[in-house]
Amino acid sequence: MTSAHLPVGRLGATSIDCPNPAELADFYAALLGMRRLVETPDGGVVAITDGAAILAMMRVDPYVAPTWPAGDQPQQMHLDVSVDDLDRAIAAAEGLGARQAAGQPQPALWRVMLDPAGHPFCLTTVGAA
């Protein structure tokens, strides 16, 4: 491998804009089995981890939730969460505060959900172990 092909670094974290980082961090920690890693003194950034991946929530004011897959405000990011049982995962996510999106392009393969701040994420059996 030549130096031109060596990576500059490695992915440190995926960051999500939101109005309330602590609330969204608690949601994703419960959904993904992660724990708090760091929080800035002003609460503007809260990061969680599972020991490998890091997901950071960052306060944005004013925050505008995406309207994807329809509407004027595009998605800002989305996560695909691999699950073994789609129906059970939907119920569990809803119990944590998520809701199903109105648009469901391929509901047999994945379900588009909205987190408490309105970000879309998908629950999917595609790729589940």
Automatic annotation (TrEMBL):
InterPro entries: Glyas_Bleomycin-R_OHBP_Dase (IPR029068), Glyoxalase_6 (IPR041581), VOC_core (IPR037523). It comes from the Bacteria. Coiled coil: none annotated. Residues 10-126 form the VOC domain. Gene3D superfamilies: 2,3-Dihydroxybiphenyl 1,2-Dioxygenase, domain 1 (3.10.180.10). This is VOC domain-containing protein. It comes from Mycolicibacterium psychrotolerans.
